[in-house]
Amino acid sequence: MNSGEIVSRLRELGDAFKADLKSRESEMDIRALQAAYLGGKGEVTALRKMLGKIPAEERRTVGQALNDVKDRIEKAATSAIDILKEGASREYLERHVDLTLPGRVPTVGSLHPLSIVMYDIVDIFVSMGFDVVSGPEVETDYYNFGALNFPDDHPARDMQDTFFIKEGRTLLRTHTSPVQVRTMQSRSLPIKVVAPGVVYRRDDDPTHSPMFLQIEGLLVDEGVTFAHLKGVLSAFIHQIFGRDVKLRFRPSFFPFTEPSAEVDIECIACRGRGCRLCSQSGWIEILGSGMIDPAVLEESSIDPERYTGFAFGLGVDRIAMLRYEGITSIKLFYENDPRFLGCFRR
Ligand code: FA5
Fold first, then answer.
1. How high is the pLDDT of residue 160?
2. Cα distance between residue 250 and residue 289, in whole Å
3. Ligand 1 pocket, 34 CB below 6 A?
4. How far is residue 240's CA from residue 247's CA, in Å, rounded to a whole number?
5. Closest CA to 114 of 13, 45, 214
């Protein structure tokens, strides 16, 4: 064969491959056909072997024709395989997927309502210059009771009220107040902190849970008075419940504060008229507070003649129940029913 005949045979082979492709229905068939044309025993290879026998000046043209036919065959094979695959997946989708069905909306997570309220409360105190600290949930009797001036026979130390881990020594903290002592013993003065966290008590009814959240506040400096305590807590309550809410400081008792006061707000549900939520009193208690007892300051090596301070502890669950009116049981916060939790997405 001369070079002209080889070039025209190569063109014919390119056309023949395209024609043969039409009858191939699988990727394997197409690859086999490609091998029959381009493989070691294929005609294109046989023609390539003749390259050495033709005059040197004609080799370039024949070489070009060989490359062209190889290129054409490979491209045609690849595109035929792509078309087959696309058809297969479309056929699969048509057979197995109903494209007219509405799409599935992915479930979007959200913060737990108690976390939302806790972060909001902490943010208010941070904006007043308080730092955020934390302490352990498994506490010693010393930090939970002893250093806070609880007498040995205080009812809170009883098995009926507290979850003990090792009798009389290690326990699940019953309030966040131990963080007061830990902070006073580890930080230098002045101190201005809030300590959010989980606490545990042997309580169980619609407004009391065995596990709940508290936020402790502590401010110690020279010249701190009850007026500062009133100012900070009033500002906080007005920010969280609105400017119009009425509040009152009611004398109370805690072993670690003197004087002590509980803070009530006018019942959000009945606006002070009296209802089941406020036990007909028109008021709801939301926190305990007071001026730090000098004995507690001394226990942390702080001179009570020079320094004074105030502390408060508020129940996050109670505030959340008031804020989201209509929550009649504290248990709803801990059952984690997605239908309930989904109501607080924002
Ligand atoms: C205390 O726990 C004191 N440590 C607060 C304190 C801190 C006083 C600093 C003075 C200085 P009390 O036991 O009253 O106080 O609890 C505080 C708040 O926790 C209550 O007002 C209430 O909102 C909430 N609380 C108490 N028990 C439960 C419970 N079982 N479930 C949900 N919330 C509760």
1. 67
2. 10
3. no
4. 12
5. 214
Q: Tell whether ligand 1 has an atom less than 6 A from the beta carbon of residue 149.
A: no
Q: How far is CA 144 from the centre of its chain?
A: 30
124 closest CA partner among 325, 319, 294, 332? 319
Task: Give the atom of ligand 1 at the shortest distance from the alpha carbon of 310.
Answer: 11
Looking at residue 326, what is its pLDDT? Answer: 79
Handedness of CA 74, 79, 81, 82 (dihedral sign): positive
Q: How far is 102 from 95, CA to CA, in rounded Å?
A: 17
Contact 285 CB / ligand 1 (< 6 Å): yes
Tokens of 342: 């989904």
Ligand 1 geometric centre to CA of 113 (Å): 19
Q: Which CATH architecture has domain 113-341?
A: 2-Layer Sandwich (3.30)
Token couple for 244: 């119009």
Side by side, the strands of the sheet bearing 247-254 are 131-132, 191-200, 211-221, 308-315, 283-292, 257-266, 247-254
Q: Record the tokens describing residue 203, joined without a space.
A: 């309580």
pLDDT at position 99: 80
Domain ranges of the chain: 3-96, 113-341
A 10 A CB-CB count for 42 gives 16
pLDDT reported for residue 159: 62
CA-to-CA distance for 161 and 157, rounded, in angstroms?
Answer: 7
What per-residue confidence (pLDDT) applies to 186? 96
What's the 343 CA to ligand 1 centre distance in angstroms? Answer: 27
Q: Whose CA is nearest to atom 24 of ligand 1?
A: 315
Pocket of ligand 1 contains residue 162 by CB under 6 Å = no
Intervals of the chain under pLDDT 70: 159-160, 168, 346
User: How far are the Cα atoms of 262, 293, 301, 309 from residue 306, in angstroms, in the given order?
Assistant: 26, 13, 12, 10
Rg (CA), the chain: 41
Residue bearing the CA closest to ligand 1, atom 22? 315
287 touches ligand 1 (CB under 6 Å): yes
120 Cβ neighbours under 8 A, 6+ residues apart: 240
Please give the number of the atom of ligand 1 that sits closest to the Cα of 218. Answer: 9
pTM summary value? 0.73
